């Protein structure tokens, strides 16, 4: 074994990570050779105030404050000792990122981690302990200064009835040296008739009772004098002791008042260490205002003393109740706030308000009652509680939306399969009715097709709500798009509802309404919001639509409960003059199928659709409402840079060219969809082989004698997905194009499609014209 590099047991990696990440010690992993930081844990980041990446850029010896021995040179010495496993625990002062200084106790240990020699640094914050020790030292110094400076004779007795301390006043009063007093046995020089009294009073003091007696005191030289003995329990260094104060009766009154004032000031200082302590008299004037009160409320002690408390820290709306409570106590010696811990609102010097915890006690003084209030600032606690409540609500909402989204995706897949065959057969029937010259049947089938399209649109809304179906995002200006949508909307509104619009003018606002989005979905947002506003006004009122810019700060989304980023947003506001939204309904208005209308009067998908589209576009929804004062729903969308409209070209559409005669292999497990597609493709002149089992399709593709010009496959099939079938086709017939058909396009990503060899993707329900153009392109 190398004595210069002692080997230590290598910790289990999993245990190491668990301890490392969960430890409440600040842990640094230091490279043995370079002395650089290799890793830091969460507590270290909190401890120094830097991110992990920032900390890793620091040499460990430079984390010291540079004061009190915490220097770079000293840090390097400790690191050298640690490599030899000879470094003792040491105290180290570091400077937090915010500039504050902290003390820690550091232990350095050489450890091999993952085969690499390192030095582990474990730091424990001892700032509080150092402060306590310094406070104890200061307190002892203060005790000694007070003890020795007192004009009263003072003696400290221990449990064994030995004098263990006395001050100079005691030596002068009893005309003896301190050494002779400390060696004096109990009762020395005291007549027998007084010894029992002294013994009894000292024992009472050791049991926690204070006694004050007037008696005779005796000196060693035989002289005596009348004295007041104050015998009280006393604790120093955690040990119970007895403090005996001896005072000449002649000077008693003056010195007693001075001692009481001194004790009161000292007690107020100790009790105010954490909370504000404010005392007032019976008239409400401030008598005491400690340092914590100065810090919390912003007034200096001199500013506060003598002024009415109500004018300083009580909000104006609460002052009448304060005066009434003070008057009630003066009249009946009781009050609702006295002797209780209550939460209320206070006011700072700058006028801002803060939540506080208040406890009021009453002390009786010769000049009347004194009210002492202990005030604690609970702003941080309230903020933490509010944040926790918001996070819990956000989590519940996210879980609910995820569950609904999963359900919606499954329903949409099955519906799209059904609609594919229904809409396909309706189109085929329309063509046949046209050929035989039956216009009434053509019209009736057209109505059936329109109904099927409405069902298709409802499924699209459900998928958009669940964010399982992406739109076609592009950079566009909202102003012209919204204007066009409102022109269509006006025809759906009764004449008793007025519509007012305020737009961002592109010429004057520098194209400030540009966003990245799908135009159809964005039109749907405005349409749904306006229809929602129309229905909220019972046929009479006013809708105001405004498009503008807004800064997001201290706002929370009404639908996802998440915090709105502090940035610029494009805002679409739709306000109505209806009855408003009841508070108990605000948490439900974005739920799918939730509606306050009569059964059958609405689908309940309007605002749910808004939720899905807005969040798919990276936005949020705000709601402002009050009962009887209407409602205003604001959609916030991220802005984007304006685009040159002439640079955007639309892809041309394929003509309805006649399809060539070709052999098509169709893999579709849904019976109705498969039968429809086989019949439709056959009508278009294609030779179609339909298989329900993808394994059978692989078998046919592997037959080299069989001609297959095109593979058309469903995505979701038992035993093998359409992507897996496409991969097999690419291996067996690399030149054969593959057309993938799916009821939920969000189930598969673009990377997966490219990797599998799929040539085109069509969404169910299939549009016959689109299908024909796609087939022509793939077979041409």
Automatic annotation (TrEMBL):
Ranges for the Histidine kinase domain?
A: 410-641
Cite the PAC domain residue spans from the record.
88-138, 211-261, 340-390
Record-linked SUPFAM superfamilies: ATPase domain of HSP90 chaperone/DNA topoisomerase II/histidine kinase, CheY-like, Homodimeric domain of signal transducing histidine kinase, PYP-like sensor domain (PAS domain)
Q: Which InterPro entries match?
A: CheY-like_superfamily, HATPase_C_sf, HATPase_dom, His_kinase_dom, HisK_dim/P_dom, HisK_dim/P_sf, PAC, PAS
Please name the GO terms of the biological process aspect recorded for this protein, alphabetically.
Answer: regulation of DNA-templated transcription
User: Which reaction does this enzyme catalyse, per its entry?
Assistant: ATP + protein L-histidine = ADP + protein N-phospho-L-histidine
At the top level, the lineage of the source is Bacteria
PAS domain residues are 12-56, 139-209, 262-333
Which CDD domains does the annotation name?
HisKA, PAS, REC_hyHK_CKI1_RcsC-like
List residues modified as 4-aspartylphosphate. 714
EC numbers, comma separated? 2.7.13.3
Q: What is the lineage of its organism?
A: Bacteria, Pseudomonadati, Pseudomonadota, Betaproteobacteria, Burkholderiales
Which residues does the UniProt record annotate as the domain Response regulatory? 663-779
- The name on file for this protein is histidine kinase
Q: Which GO terms describe its molecular function?
A: ATP binding; phosphorelay sensor kinase activity
Q: What is its EC class?
A: transferase
Keyword field: ATP-binding, Kinase, Nucleotide-binding, Phosphoprotein, Transferase, Two-component regulatory system
The record's listing under NCBIfam families reads: sensory_box
